[in-house]
Amino acid sequence: MSIKLLDFYADWCGPCKTQDPILDELEADYTEVAFEKINVDDEQDIANQYEVRSLPTVVVENDDGVVDRFIGVTQREDIEAAIQQAL
Hints:
There is one protein chain. By secondary structure, the chain is α+β, with helices and mostly antiparallel strands. The chain has one domain: Glutaredoxin (3-Layer(aba) Sandwich). The chain has three helices and four strands; from the N terminus they run βαβαββα. The protein has a four-stranded mixed beta sheet.
């Protein structure tokens, strides 16, 4: 099963910069998960497809679809729980 974590962000988004170190740590710990950073200013079609309305937005998905979605700066433990659920 493939698992992806989609990080929707923008360069001008302060909370996105706060979220970055948390996602960097998770990416180092979960090498089996594909982490994708999606700049909503450059990839508006993808952001619309995932109905992103606020930043940062993190979406965890597997082959069955979206497992969980987080809006705003989210604690590592919450994102990690979604990754574990997706595995």
